[in-house]
């Protein structure tokens, strides 16, 4: 990656990028960034800029060099959140969970009504999704 420039990361879709702990780009997706920032500020009750959000997200996405996860009841999680089930990443979408791959969503299952799951999406992003940010999702969904 180039130092002192935009981050050269590409994901299947926005839901996957959010689950990895990345917010919308303030330059190339400015309208989405502003909407995300407004919902972040609403969720946490304080003004936030890109640097502050990035610091929070960095701390939430990594435990040392490992992906940081946590557990929550699936009933409390908004659409667009990623969870791990038996070592596979799944996106919560509508009444289904969709198995992630780098090319498309594959297997579909009914979304469980309740039960503890391992959450891959950082808690701050879950809060923004819960506040109404609609994550873009690949057409295979």
Report mean pLDDT, rounded to a whole number: 92
Helix coverage percent = 25-40%
Query: Are there runs of 5+ residues with pLDDT below 50, and where?
Result: none
Instruction: Summarize the helix and strand pattern as letters.
Output: HHHEEEEEEEEH
Structural class: alpha+beta
Number of strands: 8
Beta strand %: 15-25%
- Tell the overall outline: globular
Can you list the strand order of the major beta sheet?
3-8-4-5-6-7
From the alpha carbons, calculate the radius of gyration and give it in angstroms. 15 Å
Number of helices: 4
For the termini, the CA-CA separation is: 30 Å
Largest sheet: 6 strands, antiparallel
Short descriptors:
single chain, about 140 residues, alpha+beta, six-stranded antiparallel β-sheet, two-stranded antiparallel sheet, 8 strands, about 30% helix, globular
Task: Show the helix and strand layout.
Elements: H1 14-19, H2 30-44, H3 50-61, E1 62-63, E2 66-67, E3 70-73, E4 82-85, E5 88-93, E6 96-99, E7 108-110, E8 116-119, H4 123-130
Antiparallel strand pairs: 1-2, 3-8, 4-5, 4-8, 5-6, 6-7
């Amino acid at each position: 990656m180039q130092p002192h420039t935009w981050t050269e990361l590409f994901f299947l879709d926005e839901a996957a990028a959010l689950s990895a702990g990345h917010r919308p780009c303030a330059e190339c997706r400015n309208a989405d960034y502003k909407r995300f920032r407004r919902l972040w500020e609403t969720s946490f009750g304080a003004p936030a800029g890109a640097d502050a959000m990035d610091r929070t997200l960095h701390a939430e996405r990594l435990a040392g060099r490992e992906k940081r996860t946590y557990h929550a009841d699936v009933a409390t999680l908004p659409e667009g959140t990623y969870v791990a089930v038996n070592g596979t990443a799944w996106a919560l979408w509508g009444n289904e969970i969709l198995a992630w791959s780098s090319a498309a969503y594959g297997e579909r299952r009914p979304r469980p009504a309740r039960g503890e799951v391992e959450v891959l999406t950082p808690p701050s992003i879950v809060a923004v999704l819960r506040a109404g940010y609609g994550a873009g999702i690949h057409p295979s969904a």
